[in-house]
UniProtKB/TrEMBL annotation:
Role, per record: Catalyzes the conversion of dihydroorotate to orotate with quinone as electron acceptor.
Record organism: Haemophilus paracuniculus
Protein name, per record: Dihydroorotate dehydrogenase (quinone)
Family: Belongs to the dihydroorotate dehydrogenase family. Type 2 subfamily.
Reactions performed catalytically: (S)-dihydroorotate + a quinone = orotate + a quinol
Signal peptide boundaries: none
Length: 324
């Protein structure tokens, strides 16, 4: 079954939608999948195992139960915006067969925060769910705080943690304002609901050493709860000469492995153990995941590895990775 779903997830538009619908149906079948046990506590949250699904696959939270049955210890949905986005070109992917990588282009369409919250709240999945939030395309950077605030307020009750992407926001003054505003809103919401939900920042592996040091200092000063390292890369250095590698988009999959490990090590050094790291990028085996843990990560997220290899990889990682 998964081989058919995988082909759809590697595709675009309708084929991708059909694969997510198939996963949704799988989640509604009258039997219960079991999440492999390898418990770890991170950010004050108890995870059944340290292997999660990265944002970008189940953007609208429509297939949480089906994905959960495959064994993920946590699932991150999104990126989701205040209003629905429908005008982006469909997500396009190019598979680099020889390099075991995928280039992703476009994307950004989502049903909006209200629809996603409805899906998340109705899911029966017993693992951890994170919601990745962003701004609408027609919202200027200067006015983007309102979009983040709307999403944070609406997601707070229903997510175990909330993630904000910073990989395209290089302005340090804007970042400082955003982090301060997010933490203030988090405090108000924690008082209102008498429940603390961690705030996680997702960073790009393309950051320079100076940028890593700068953002790490900001994350620590603002008491950010967690950081995801990282996202797809714009670099093609690791796939030089590979057919179709020159195509535009973010590269993910096995070619990202070494770059991401270096990023995790640099970030872990800069954070000095004060903020936990989620390693995301290039995981394709138990040893590759263990390298990320050894480099400083506390949790692992899958994206391309899951699409290319299927649920067997989740099971192997969930029980094979030794968490610290």
């Amino acid at each position: 079954m998964y081989s058919l779903i995988r082909q759809g997830l590697l595709g675009t538009g309708k084929s991708r939608e059909l694969s997510l619908k198939a996963l949704k149906i799988y989640g509604n079948l009258p039997f219960k999948g079991k999440i492999p046990e390898n418990p770890v506590s991170v950010m004050g949250i108890q995870f059944k195992n340290p292997i999660g699904l990265a944002a970008g696959l189940d953007i609208n939270g429509e297939a949480i139960d089906g994905l959960g049955r495959l064994g993920f210890g946590f699932i991150e949905v999104g990126t989701v915006t205040p209003k629905a986005e429908t005008n982006y070109p469909h997500l396009e992917t190019t598979r680099l067969h020889r390099a075991k990588g995928i280039i992703h282009r476009h994307g950004g369409n989502n049903l909006g925060i209200d629809a996603v919250i409805e899906n998340v709240s109705s899911a029966e999945y017993k693992g951890v769910v994170g919601i990745n939030i962003g701004k609408n395309a027609d919202t200027s950077l200067d006015a983007s705080w309102d979009d983040y605030q709307i999403c944070l307020q609406k997601a707070y009750q229903f997510a175990h943690y909330i993630t904000v992407n910073l990989d395209e926001q290089a302005d340090s003054e804007w970042t400082e304002h955003l982090l301060k505003s997010l933490k203030h809103e988090q405090f108000l919401l924690s008082q209102k609901y008498r429940s603390y939900k961690p705030l996680v920042i997702k960073l790009s592996p393309d950051l320079t050493a100076d940028e890593i040091a700068q953002i790490a200092d900001s994350l620590v000063r603002h008491n950010i709860d967690g950081v995801i390292a990282g996202n797809g890369t714009l670099s093609r250095e690791m796939v030089g000469g590979v057919k179709n590698a020159e195509q535009a988009g973010r590269l993910s999959g096995k070619p990202l492995h070494s770059l991401n490990n270096q990023f995790i090590r640099q970030l872990a050094h800069a954070l000095n153990g004060k903020i936990p790291i989620v390693g995301c990028g290039g995981v394709h085996s138990v040893p590759s995941a263990q390298e990320k843990i050894n480099a400083g990560a506390s949790l692992i997220q899958l994206y391309s590895g899951f699409i290319l290899q299927g649920s067997s990889l989740i099971q192997q990682l969930a029980t094979g990775v030794e968490v610290k």
